[in-house]
Amino acid sequence: MNTEIKIADGKVSCLEDDREIGRLDFKIQDNVMVIEHTRAFEKGKGVGRKLVVAAIEYAKDKGMKINPVCSFAYELMQRDEKYHELLVDEAGESLSCSL
């Protein structure tokens, strides 16, 4: 199986053999990536984590901060100290979905 991550038009897609198995939606506001929602269409493959990490790396490469309003992305970033410096000060104040 061939798995790849694509980032375009406000979304990060995880593809397995050209079939989308997960998607993360984001928007950019004032040089801040707002992670709105993460969906894994197949469970148990670590797809959600791959999507969030790809979004984090994209934002980091572009010099952006991150405001994860998606609770999954927020929790992942809270658990790993290396991501703390990328969080906006108000991160976690307006989570839009629950785990």
Main attributes?
single chain, 99 residues, five-stranded mixed beta sheet, globular
SSE layout:
Layout: E1 3-8, E2 11-16, E3 19-29, E4 32-40, H1 47-61, E5 65-68, H2 71-79
Parallel strand pairs: 4-5
Antiparallel strand pairs: 1-2, 2-3, 3-4
Helices, by number, come to 2
User: How can the largest sheet be summarized?
Assistant: 5 strands, mixed
| Topology pattern, helix = H, strand = E | EEEEHEH
SS strand fraction? 35-45%
Task: Compute the number of strand runs.
Answer: 5
Order of strands across the main sheet: 1-2-3-4-5
The rough form would be described as globular
CA radius of gyration is: 13 Å
Oligomeric state of this protein: single chain
Structural summary, described in words:
The protein has 99 residues and is an alpha+beta fold. Helix content is 24%, strand content 36%. The protein contains 2 helices and 5 strands. It has helices at residues 47-61, 71-79, and strands at residues 3-8, 11-16, 19-29, 32-40, 65-68. Strands 1-2-3-4-5 form a 5-stranded mixed β-sheet.
Structure described in brief:
This protein has 99 residues and is α+β, with helices and mostly antiparallel strands. It has two helices and five strands, in the order E-E-E-E-H-E-H.
